[in-house]
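Dear Dr. L.,

I hope this message finds you well. Following up on our conversation about the binding site, I have prepared a predicted three-dimensional model of the protein together with zinc ion. For your records, I am including the exact sequence and ligand specification that went into the calculation, followed by the structure tokens. Please feel free to forward this to your student if that is useful.
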Amino acid sequence: MAKTVTEELVFEYWDCDKCGQKAIRGDVRNCPSCGNPRNESVKFYLLEGKEEKVEDLAQAEKFKAGADWVCSFCEALNSITDKNCISCGASQESSEKNYFEVQKEKELKGAKNSDPEKPEDWWEAKYGKPFNWMKFSIWTVILLGSCITSLYYLGRTHEVKFQVVDVSWERTVPVLRYSNKEGIDWENELKGEDIVKLKSTQEIRSYEDRQVGTKMETYSESEQYQSGTKKDCNTNYESTGSGASKKVTTCNDVPTYSSRTVQRTRQVPVYQKFPIYGTKVTYTANMYVPLREDTLKGKDNNPRWPDAILGVGEKGKSDTKGEPKAIYIVELKKINPDDKAKDIQKIKTTEDKFKSFYKLKESVTRPVNVFEEIVLEEGEEKIDETEKEK
Ligand SMILES: [Zn+2]
Ligand SMILES: [Zn+2]
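The resulting structure of the complex is given below.
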């Protein structure tokens, strides 16, 4: 990595404290407007956007010789190369301070005089603008308020009186008969009793992936590579204290990177599907199988089970009843046409409510939500008329 350091001298500028003339070049010792010599109060600075190199070698040497000295008698700033004050002629030996020492003194004085920072400013400087809790609280209250209001509105119900205009029930009992049945199943999955195997065959039951070898595969990959270098420069200014700044530019050649796609190869396994065989058995066995379903319906509030008549199956075994099913439906019509509720509402309800609450022709009061639908209780289900027609 190549490193280059360039050093040059650039002019500084100063302002006249007597007439206010600005940006007087560092090699000028008396104000061009009023003739006032530059003195203790001067502070050298660099001009942004305007940089003038000190080309004259003799001038450069004078700048580099060192900081200006302050005349103890008239406060004028003099070059270190001048043995006597250009304003009053006093000797350099009788001077007590140079430019830098004066600047340091001013800095110390300035630090003492400036007010201790206010706590708020200190906070702002460290963490930025303080968080506005007031604003935050107001917005929180507004947002929370509207959430609660809408939840309250959606959850609001009102009581509506309905008349039970229709009730219907349907109860079903499946009947199972012990029968001899033929089936085909895998050997370890045969069902039933008194199994008689009729035939067995070997069949493919599943497949398994097995590695049979390897192969070379090409694939592309992105990689980083050094595509060149660029100059990374850093500039530093150091005042001579005599009206110029030493400008030191340090540059490093740093690598730059790009990415490119490269083709590579790799070894990958090769798989093949192998069939796994199983034994399939054709057999007969005795078991309970569905025979029929007995259903009873009614349009009153007294549901009854069908009289399922049980017969006799294989080996003299009696038929059995399967899991019974029941449906209870009620149709409600609102009594007062002005009530906010859908006129007719059909509900699938529970056995308990069907028998004791929704009595045919009687009136019931139910909560209705903002969508004008009855709020259902556990075990209840809405029946959509349009859905049912499908
Ligand atoms: Zn002036
Ligand atoms: Zn003097």
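In brief: The longest strand covers residues 244-298.

With kind regards,
A. P.
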